[in-house]
Write a structure and sequence with these properties.
With 128 residues, the chain is of the alpha+beta class. The protein has one domain. 46% of the residues lie in helices and 25% in strands. The protein has a three-stranded antiparallel beta sheet, covered by helices on one side. Strand 1 and strand 2 form a beta hairpin. Helix 1 crosses helix 2. It is rod-shaped and about 80 Å long. It starts with 7 loop residues before the first helix and ends with a strand. The relative contact order is 0.19.
Length: 128
């Protein structure tokens, strides 16, 4: 009976190890995406507030503020910023900012794209 069990642990390890590695990589991927989304949300809210205070919804200025707030250590690549102003039904003017970026997770690039989304988008709006 003992001879039939010889090597069973090796086979189980060979079958289970790839699944375990994928679970760990997916956890790291989602963690980096959530961290980047949080940083992008903070930077977008900050830039929207500054634009509302200055009453200046210039897209280049808002993008510059977001980029400076993110810093070089964020995982955000190819930042796209859209700004607009609108007046709601009550006559209140507001500035709307949408920021979108691709997250650099550093894990396999497009090869591991099945692990989850690699693009995040946030929107902020403030009256001015």
């Amino acid at each position: 009976m003992r001879n039939r069990q010889k090597g069973a642990a090796s086979v189980e390890l060979a079958m289970g190890l790839p699944v375990l590695v994928m679970v760990i990589m997916a956890g790291v991927h989602f963690g980096l995406v959530l961290k980047t989304r949080s940083q992008l949300g903070d930077a977008t809210n900050h830039a929207t507030r500054l634009a509302a205070i200055a009453r200046n919804a210039n897209g280049n200025t808002v993008r510059s503020v977001i980029q400076n707030r993110l810093g070089s250590s964020s995982g955000c690549q190819s930042l796209q910023v859209t700004t607009s102003t609108a007046t709601d039904a009550l006559g209140v003017n507001r500035v709307d900012v949408t920021a979108r970026c691709t997250v650099n997770t550093g894990i396999g690039g497009t090869l591991m794209s099945f692990l989850g989304p690699s693009e995040v988008s946030v929107r902020a709006s403030m009256p001015f």
